[in-house]
Amino acid sequence: MSNTWTLTKMRMRLAVRNRAFFFFSFVMPLLFLFGAITFFTKGESNWVGYVLGAILTLTVMGSFWGLSVQLVTFREQGVLRRFRLAPVKASDMLASSIISNYFLTLPIVVIEIVLCRYAFHLRSWGNLWAIFLLVTLGSAAFAAFGLIVASVTNTMQETQMINNLIWMGFLFLSGATIPLAIFPGWLQRFALFIPATYLATGLEFAATNQAGLREIATDAAALALGLWLAFEVSRQLFRWEPEAKAPRRAKMWAAAALVPFIIFGVWENVTGTRLKEINQNYHALSSQMAGFLPKQK
Amino acid sequence: MGQPIIDVQNLHKSYGAVQAVRGVSFSVQAGEVFGLLGPNGAGKTSTVEILEGLRTADSGVVRVCGLDPAQSGDEFKQNVGAVLQSTSLPDKLKVKEAIELFANFYKHRADTNKLLKQFQLEEKSSAYYSHLSGGQKQRLALAMALVNEPQVVFLDEPTAGLDPQVRREIYDIIEQLRREQKTVLLTTHYIEEAERLCDRVAIVDHGLVIATGTPRELKHGAAGTTRIEVRLARPLVNGVLGHLEGVADSREFDGTYVLHSAQPPQTIVALVKALQSENNELQSLEMFSPSLEDVFIELTGRRLRE
């Protein structure tokens, strides 16, 4: 634990010395927030809550990109090799990555919530306990997913290629950017197998409907299980040496981290509860928004 | 002499079809500075990385401080320090932070400020790693290797790529470690480094130890000959140089003729007479007292650096 904490402090120090960190972790999320609220909410408080849920999802999911690139960079440069000489374990390196990322994500999450409340007239805080539980689990889970990608790829080019593919799925099929309710039925059902969907819908409900811990239990459980599996798999596949190649079976092991989402996806498809709630929530908000639109002459 | 602190027996390591280490054996006593001297590709780095626990041997017995590096995990790492052939740290990590970071991983820690002073890094303690010169980075790597006051220090080509002035600074540091009775195993392809720093040297070539001893013993083993290097106006077509008075060995490397002679003055006189009779001219002549390079040439027929 002591090594993990030492490495966590090091990573946080390095992050705040990197200008790119401030741009990608603060400037971009805030630009998205301002843009989305300006163009999509027309000041309607419930829509502000809806957009807040989506922006928080994007902010938290950013962990996926940053950590995979950093791990591959450290490996390629030989930085990990030097740490290997010391009594440091793979779990220390991975855990410190995840923990430092969480602490670095929290400030922007707080800023986004406070801005929505006071600058964009969000009427309620939503359920802050549920929001922070999902932010915590989501930040750690998506960080761990990123670390899996770094564990199975051999070069930065390969890492970025796979990151892009997976990121597109997270971005456009989870409800974080395009509301799931406007997808055709078969695509909505497919989205239930995507990890990001549980984060996006959980944060949406917590920010708009004040959904409690009970209501987001499935989302939290899916993310927690995904985190645990992803961490274990990336620990088993961790490579210290620049020239060490990922074994062929590595990609199969990586797929194991998706097992919770496959199980939850089947469950949600069978019960239909989640999709019903997603559609109901969206249409309720849309009806409220219709009341604000100018009537046709 | 007690139990050796480093003991290597019949070490083998291959990378695919390439046999990098083919039965290396040697031992190092506590407090000794031991060198593995050999050309690039001889198997020195593979050997030392197995001792550091970074690689596993295919076969053979390895003990460092009584522990198997491959099996002993953290207990082994607590007792050793190492400088890799190439060390890399995050660009934005500061010098003092790097030393403190690595010190935190160990149960037993040296004083950071003392290390900064010992390795002349005090002025650079707040500098980012990316802003350091090559020599400063190597001094930092050495400081990091000693944060845990290790029993054994491994130095893999500690002065490779550094300019002569910086190299001498590193030599001073290693000599300080020797005075402190640290056990040091260093790999190098620099003759001067092995001759100046090492109590004993193992000459390694093509994955095998071909000679072991103190630098003095090894040089005396080269029959106490003087190396004479000559360049001629025209190449010789017969082996006349090998038959000159006093010459024990004669080879040619890239147009330079290298003679080993037990009677240098007589050899030079005979050389001039032979060249006159062949209508050839001497372009340059250099004489060197016996060195480990000569030992290497005698044992392998090649220069250490080709």
Q: Care to describe what's here?
A:
The complex is a heterodimer of chains A (297) and B (306). Chain A contains 13 helices and no strands. Chain A has 297 residues and is mainly α. Chain A has one domain (2-288). Mean pLDDT of chain A is 89; it is low at 292-297. The longest helix of chain A is centred in the N-terminal third of the chain and has 33 residues, at 45-77. Helix content of chain A is 76%, strand content 0%. In chain A, helix 3 (45-77) packs antiparallel against helix 7 and helix 9 runs antiparallel to helix 10 (217-236). In chain B, strand 6 (152-156), helix 6 (164-179) and strand 7 form a beta-alpha-beta unit. Chain A binds chain B through residues 2-3, 6, 10, 13-14, 17-18, 74, 77-79, 81-82, 84-88, 241, and chain B through 52-54, 73-74, 77-78, 81-82, 84, 86-90, 92-93, 97, 101-102, 104-106, 144.
Comma- or semicolon-separated keywords:
heterodimer, A: mainly alpha, 13 helices, 76% helix, disordered C terminus, B: 306 residues, alpha/beta, Rossmann fold, Alpha-Beta Plaits, 2 domains, 6-stranded mixed beta sheet, 10 helices
